[in-house]
Write a structure and sequence with these properties.
By secondary structure, the chain is mostly helical. 58% of the residues lie in helices and 0% in strands. The protein has helices spanning 2-8, 24-35, 41-53, 58-66, 80-97. Residues 1-5 and 7-17 have low confidence and may be disordered.
């Protein structure tokens, strides 16, 4: 599960289109849809906020939301800045998916 979301963070910063960042609700909806019952509502919200507040470009976040299958998003589709931002997301994403203490 961590791998899917980490790769998802690697959305293509090179895509064209508008520059508006998808909302936390839009991001959460895609996470919920793509993960099925593998993440709780609380985890999906945490993941969505993490993506929204990240240094990923608006285009990369939009790619996450618009992807039919997030597992097909390739790290090679990244801009250099999104590659760096996606690496910085690993620990925060793991934290979101960890059980509460």
């Amino acid at each position: 599960m961590i791998t899917v979301f980490s790769l998802t963070a690697c959305g293509g910063g090179e895509s064209s289109g508008g520059s508006d960042r998808p909302s936390i609700g839009d991001i959460e909806g895609q996470i919920t849809q793509s993960s099925g019952d593998q993440v709780s509502e609380k985890q999906a919200t945490c993941l969505a906020k993490t993506y929204y507040e990240s240094d990923l470009s608006d285009e990369a976040v939009r790619l996450l939301v618009e992807a039919e299958d997030v597992s097909t998003i390739s790290p090679e589709d990244l801009s250099k800045a999104d590659q760096k931002a996606s690496k910085e997301l690993y620990e925060p994403l793991v934290k979101c998916l960890s059980p509460a203490e």
